[in-house]
Amino acid sequence: MTGSEPPRLRVVEISGGVGGPVCGRLFAGLGHDVVRCEPAGGDPLRRRPPLNAAGTGLEFVALNADKDAVRIGSGDAGARDLHRLLDLADVAVLDLTPAAAAELGLGADGLRERWPRLVAVWILGFGRDGAYRDIPGDSLLAEAYGGLATMIGEPDRRPLGLGGEQAAYCAGVTGFLGAMLALRRRDAGHGGDLVEVTMCDVVAYMDWKSDVAESMTGRPPMRSGADPGDWRLVRARDGWVGFIFQQKHWAQVVELVGAPELADPLLADESHRQARAAEWWPVVERWAVERSAEDIYRLAQRLGLPFGWAARASDLVRSPQLRHRGFITPEPDPGGSTPAVGTPVHTAGLPWRSGTAPEPADRMPERWTSRPPGTVPGPRPPSGTAPLSGIVVLDFGTITAGAAVTRLLADYGATVLKIEWTDRPDTFRSWKMPDPAGGAATAPTSPYFPSNNAGKLGVAVNLKTPEGREVVHRLARRSHILVENYRVGVTRRLGIDADTIRAVNPDLLYLSLSSQGQDGPEAGNSSYGSTLDLLSGLASVTGYEADRPLWSSSDVNYPDQLVSLFGAAFLAYCLQRGIEGVHLDVSQREVVSWTLAAEIADHLVNGNDAAPHGNRRPGRTPHDTYPCSEPGTWIAISCFTDRHRDALAALAAPAALAGHDEAWWWSHEDLVDTEVTGWTRRRTRKEAIAELLAAGVPAVPVLDAAGRRDEPGFASRGVTLATCQGPVKGLPMRLHGHAPRPPVTAPGLGAHTRAVLRDLGRMSDEEIDDLEGRGVIHCGPEASPSPIRAPEPRSDQP
């Protein structure tokens, strides 16, 4: 930790949705002064079910705990009151449409001109221009237009949004990350900035695998449902369990089930298993249906299998793992006036608040009477450079969760050393991919690999040797951050655990992104993203109504994407606040469960156990996807107000739908669905969208990867980048004051070993040649020159 506590940040939140409160909640939970501005009629989220004992929305409580609230009137008087708050703020968080922001005298240019030291985070549904700019931010609409809904659900049924408000939560976390990066630049003398976060861009960023697959096969991928290949959701006696395994795990699967039919040696070959799936999967299903889902999960994990089971809110509340770590509030308020969950980030250096949500006052808090203090201590980027320039990162991240964190750090200027070994490279280098179109040769490195690793330096070190561990320790002395997402226990065996590394460099920030955290009865368990879909509770609220749960599947692995944004955000926070020498213990499961705080609270307060409800969401109806006349084309509609519903009724079925209130529309969902579907089926997607937008009904097309590529807004905002290694995911946000230089390539294995050890490790070529000759390091083919500026050691040790 730093010697002096930096001043608290002042944050003004002007919100009309969910993404802004998510961003503001991160500031408030970490102890900063957040004032949310509410209209005279109050925030609709206050009244949105599920409700607590006092009639307040549990989502509102979860997202607005520990904030202050003030009423802001309409017209010029309200704008003046808001502007006075902004005069005193470090950060503003908006999730208004451009039209709503303009009514308050706020716009992109005006924010930067009137408040030059302010960092403004603007969360938009669909950008500041284009046909959809004034549609409020809605998770289903963003997931539809961003391409994710095409990937969720069964192939012969309608596209689905993920359960809860996933797009909004991811946008809020992205906004928090952007704020920290912009504050670092402000503190270095660059002034404030506008951080533009577009929800559909964040969605597209998370669905980057679809861009890669489409570029390989020439066909955009589609939703594969619950049974994609070797990974399936199987019914157990009392629920559902995810059979999740790689080729290397087959022997353990055979041991788990214990059926002689699975012991056939031919089934050890993946191609044989696929050809004979109708023969052996029923054996598995008969075995599973006689056992509880949780028991199967525990038996599988003991064998090293990354299985999961579809936990519901009631299961999360009683989970020994979540209670051990304090994620489930130890003594939750039975009335639901405080959040039911804590923080997924555990460290002594970051206390977390979980108080009550505010009632709106008529004036700003008394402590907001003068301008905020200046900068805070900590390593600052040199003048005129990227926000993370000068930061050195040791990257032990693999696949996505860890590797995508460090890709984000590299994008914004950090020097990232991707450390692997020839016998233990990042698994994504050889990840199985779809067959290329036209019989083209399969690339030696998986096309997935560059998206999480572009812009890094490749270093190959054998950590199974004492000399290899000393090489890493030597690099750690000159580094600021280490990131790893190994299974608990692996880093200690390799000599790179937090205690060992911080003994070498006491100031280093150490981020662990393990499946379930570093302690607790399930800490040693393994997982993939689909495992976390299940264990987090997300799968239990994703799916078609009254049907089985659904996961995001290995084609998306949504939890990995959210976790990477979360990890990068908290590292950037520590850097901005001058926090050093802490171990950030992040549970990937808890990060995803954190987005379901309202569902967990609903069980604790009201006894409800959330289940899949298709695309239905409280406070918006109709809220669903609808087919159009062209085969396989869909649109998404979300009506927030009676005005929206009246306009839709006038278009689709005036006789059946006109003149009814929200409660009627909600209770007559089947009738509404029939009428709206009949209307959309008579129109092309383009025709339906044009008529709906002209009538003022919020609607967007449901895009796939190909459709997304053809939409100019995604390309202009840099969501996907074209490189010599194929399409690579771009950026989830835009800092108006800093445009990162696009990464060129991902490193080859050990491509920069010599340069890094020479320039950063200060080793001679003779020392490097000796280490390579003894199998301690590997120097791959030299990449293009990458000058590395070697910082001074970060501790007193040599």
Automatic annotation (TrEMBL):
<protein>
    <submittedName>
        <fullName>Crotonobetainyl-CoA:carnitine CoA-transferase CaiB</fullName>
    </submittedName>
</protein>
<dbReference type="InterPro" id="IPR044855">
    <property type="entry name" value="CoA-Trfase_III_dom3_sf"/>
</dbReference>
<dbReference type="Pfam" id="PF02515">
    <property type="entry name" value="CoA_transf_3"/>
</dbReference>
<keyword id="KW-0808">Transferase</keyword>
<dbReference type="InterPro" id="IPR003673">
    <property type="entry name" value="CoA-Trfase_fam_III"/>
</dbReference>
<feature type="compositionally biased region" description="Basic and acidic residues">
    <location>
        <begin position="360"/>
        <end position="369"/>
    </location>
</feature>
<feature type="region of interest" description="Disordered">
    <location>
        <begin position="773"/>
        <end position="798"/>
    </location>
</feature>
<feature type="region of interest" description="Disordered">
    <location>
        <begin position="328"/>
        <end position="384"/>
    </location>
</feature>
<comment type="similarity">
    <text>Belongs to the CoA-transferase III family.</text>
</comment>
<feature type="compositionally biased region" description="Pro residues">
    <location>
        <begin position="374"/>
        <end position="384"/>
    </location>
</feature>
<dbReference type="InterPro" id="IPR050509">
    <property type="entry name" value="CoA-transferase_III"/>
</dbReference>
<dbReference type="InterPro" id="IPR023606">
    <property type="entry name" value="CoA-Trfase_III_dom_1_sf"/>
</dbReference>
<dbReference type="GO" id="GO:0016740">
    <property type="term" value="F:transferase activity"/>
</dbReference>
